[in-house]
Amino acid sequence: MSIRRIRRIAVDRILHPVWEGLVALGMLYLAGELMRSERSAQPLTGPAESHPERLRPDIPLTPQERKLARQLERRVDPPV
Q: Cys bridge to 51: 20, 47, 63, 76, which one at CB 3.0-4.6 A?
């Protein structure tokens, strides 16, 4: 058996199925990332129900909290 034939058998029977498995795994990973980004693309509605700002809306935010809120608003970009 020639070296070319051994190489061809190795590629056809070993490397090709491994490659197809890695491609399938990559597709599953990307599908999960796309679904995660679609879920997070929903508009923000404010703090959670048990968050202190939700519990006491009559108390204004502190300067540090306003600064953090501005930083969060800049980080949340709409999906392209």
A: 47
Residues 53 and 61 sit within 8 Å (Cβ to Cβ): yes
The answer to whether 41 touches 76, Cβ cutoff 8 Å, is no
* pTM: predicted TM-score of the whole model, two decimal places: 0.37
Please, what is the end-to-end C-alpha distance for the chain in angstroms? 55
Q: Would you give the DSSP letter of residue 76?
A: -
* Band of pLDDT at residue 20, cut at 50, 70 and 90: very high
